[in-house]
Design goal:
heterodimer, A: 226 residues, 0% strand, B: 114 residues
Chain lengths: 226, 114
Amino acid sequence: MEHRTKFDLDQNVAQWKARLSKSQKMTSENIEELSDHLYSEIEELQELGLDEEEAFLVARKRIGSIDCIAAEFRKVNNKLLFAKELMPYIKGILILLAFSLLVDLVGKLFLIIGLKAGIAIHELNMTVFLVLLVFLTSFCYSLYHKFRNHKAIFPVKITTLTMVILITGVLHALSSNALFQIAKPTELGIALTTLQIFKVSFVLLLLAFSCIVAIYTKKKGLEIAD
Amino acid sequence: MEKLSKELIGASSIPIILSLLSKEASYGYEIIKNIKKLSDGKISYGEGTLYPVLHKLEKKGWIESFWSVADSGRKRKYYKISEKGRKELATEKENWTIINEIISKLWNIEPNLT
């Protein structure tokens, strides 16, 4: 005798919703609304005498294929989808910026330490290089070790747009602060400070734009698979 | 039972939806059922196509949406007409009346057209 597992309606609807979400053309609100529609249709079909599984299959077919629904919703969610498509680029720019700021900050920290300890800058070169080498090697080794043991590299997910914005912002503030401490009122010092002010305005603009995109997509509840 | 052409259904969707919502707030599934009933099955919106139209009307500010819990206990999104939508509906009524008058005049003059 054929043995069939009992049909689980909620689980099947959840799978259908997951497929809609995967199309990346609809907001979570769109999907919730359509799932209510699907349930309403199922209920009506059940009243006509169909069992749960039959009603689900017919209702799903009536609503249309995932591709068709996604194509229709794409037209309405156009602006939102554009923002979503911008996200990887913004993230890429911010991560690159964060990395260069980190390198910048480490250099400046050594300068500050050198200045405070009264060591001449040219004498610092070798020390800085060696310390950085040890630091980077141990950092890379710990990353590799965590990766091999399938552990998360960082305790929180740092590649979300919010985290990237936060990290870049903090690094930039620290880096600027470090420069203002080092810069002496010489011509080069003044030029560097002016340049830093220009950089700060640029980064602030970039961060503000990123925040707008992050808030906009979050508010609209667009389903984004990171 | 012959269905109306796609173009005609598309052109009439906005006045029909606005008129329905001007009577009472409703949700997607109910709107589709009501229109089907009203038109004796001649207008049948695709299940997956009405929602984008509703969202378009919402973006234009002609209708407003709100979430509420239905009798079934599920969350349901309802739509109602806005003040801006009522004005749009009045304009739509005028336009459709004009078209109706033109066609009536033409067909009265030439009764053998059909």
